[in-house]
Amino acid sequence: MNIEFSHVADNDQPGMVDVGAKKITVREAEAQSIVWLGKENIELFEKAGWENKKGGILQTAIIAGTMAAKKTGDLIPMCHPLGLESCKINIDVLEESLKITCICRLEAKTGVEMEAMVGASVAALTIYDMCKSVSKGIVIQETKLIRKSGGKSDFKA
């Protein structure tokens, strides 16, 4: 079986994918991160209105995730720098965890999966940072792509 990796150039060296010949289409991707806090910590933070000495926990995570999604091309070496048209982050409070969803969209020649993944990941890391004074047992359980559309193939988990 011969597998071709998209970020390996003809000379077997790393390289950015040439998207010059691709068509501009609407690209959208949704990623999710789960942050396990435990039931006691969820109750504690809810009682505090999701605020602590550093500020609003959920609001800060949304801002950080959005900023990170916009900087994905600076963080991941082979990602194209993209001007996102939309980045929406939602945080759902579950019984023991927080579910972070990041949806990124634009019209472009390349997809926005990495932007959505970075947005969700950095929001999760920000929650850890904002909450670590209460517990070092917080676990970022997963970050995964939920769906993507546009381009030559769509995906849904």
UniProtKB/TrEMBL annotation:
It comes from the Bacteria. Pathway: Cofactor biosynthesis; molybdopterin biosynthesis. GO terms for biological process: Mo-molybdopterin cofactor biosynthetic process. Transmembrane segments: none annotated. It catalyses: (8S)-3',8-cyclo-7,8-dihydroguanosine 5'-triphosphate = cyclic pyranopterin phosphate + diphosphate. Coiled coil: none annotated. Its EC number is 4.6.1.17. Residues 16-151 form the Molybdopterin cofactor biosynthesis C (MoaC) domain. The keyword Lyase applies. InterPro entries: MoaC, MoaC_bact/euk, MoaC_sf, Mopterin_CF_biosynth-C_dom. GO terms for molecular function: cyclic pyranopterin monophosphate synthase activity. Keywords: Lyase, Molybdenum cofactor biosynthesis. SUPFAM superfamilies: Molybdenum cofactor biosynthesis protein C, MoaC. Catalyzes the conversion of (8S)-3',8-cyclo-7,8-dihydroguanosine 5'-triphosphate to cyclic pyranopterin monophosphate (cPMP). This is cyclic pyranopterin monophosphate synthase.
